[in-house]
Amino acid sequence: MNIKKYLLALGVVIIGLGLFFLNYSNSAAEESVTTVKINDVVNTAQASQGNHRSLIVFFTRTKGVYAVGEVPIGHTHRIANYIQEATGADMYEIVPEKEYPNEYRATTEVARAERDNNERPAIKGSIPDVSQYDTIYIGSPIWWGEYPMVVRTFLDQVDLNGKTVIPYTTHEGSGLGSTTAILARQFPQANILEGLAIRGSNADSDAAKTAVQTWLQRIGVLGQ
Ligand SMILES: Cc1cc2nc3c(=O)[nH]c(=O)nc-3n(C[C@H](O)[C@H](O)[C@H](O)COP(=O)(O)O)c2cc1C
Predict the structure, then answer these.
(1) Choice between 224 and 157, residue whose per-residue pLDDT is larger
(2) How far apart (Å, rounded) are the C-alpha atoms in residues 147 and 213?
(3) Which alpha helices (H) appear in 117-190, and where do they start and end?
């Protein structure tokens, strides 16, 4: 009888201990889930707070794109988005007053004429006041080895001297082309950082997103 009572008490203790440990491990698991959630909240808060001392400028096209025709988001726009996700910076898209043709070939002809005549096609809407920014990312596809002339229109209307200027391009072989040289000539007092060139056909990829993050770390914009 005594032994039965003893075994019963032992059983109760073992089950109790079992429940205790089960509960502990559950709450430990819950705690780690909560930690992840808290981190998410912090990250979201930082992203939504944004970084309003930096501006990501870009020009892009979704029609007449080399090799693919029409795309839902322009190649350079994708790179701009990756930079925005990483930095929380403000964004501004250069939109030309007059649309380019829908076909690639026809666009190259219009673009070549604009370049040969050193034109400055009008920009739709107003240009942001860049005086409130310390850092300006200038993003563009490469056209005929350099900036499309509508990007030159933008550059003529702002003063980036004294600012940190960061070029990035998408292209199909020309890399940064002469974009960095153009910026250096136009804004001799700007601090022009190493630019990033991504092949347009690779812009919609994890590899491109990673390349953007690695580059931002290398040039000191993001923590290592
Ligand atoms: C008018 C025109 C001229 C181009 N010239 C070049 C060039 O000289 N070198 C090059 O590598 N790519 C050139 N490309 C390809 C674009 O730079 C490339 O497709 C880019 O990723 C397009 O980006 P977007 O979708 O943001 O406009 C040219 C494309 C167009 C439409």
Answers:
(1) 157
(2) 24
(3) 149-156, 179-186
Would the CB of 158 count as within 6 Å of ligand 1?
no
Contact 78, 40 (CB under 8 A): no
* 43 contacts: CB under 8 Å, gap ≥ 6: none
pLDDT tens for each residue of 17-37: 444 333 333 333 333 332 333
| Closest to 115 measured CA to CA, from 147, 141, 154 | 147
Domain covering 51-218 assigned CATH 3.40.50.300 in the classification = no
For the chain, first and last CA: distance in Å?
70
User: Could you tell me the residue ranges of all domains in the chain?
Assistant: 1-44, 51-218
Q: If you compute the radius of gyration of the chain from its CA atoms, what whole number of angstroms results? A: 27
- So what's the pLDDT on residue 47? 46
Distance from the alpha carbon of residue 134 to the mean position of ligand 1, in angstroms: 29
Q: Are strands 164-171 and 135-141 parallel, antiparallel or unpaired?
A: parallel
pLDDT in tens, 130-176: 999 999 999 999 999 999 999 999 999 999 999 999 999 999 999 99
| Neighbour tally for 7: CB within 10 Å | 10
Q: How far is the CA of 2 from the centre of ligand 1 (A)?
A: 90
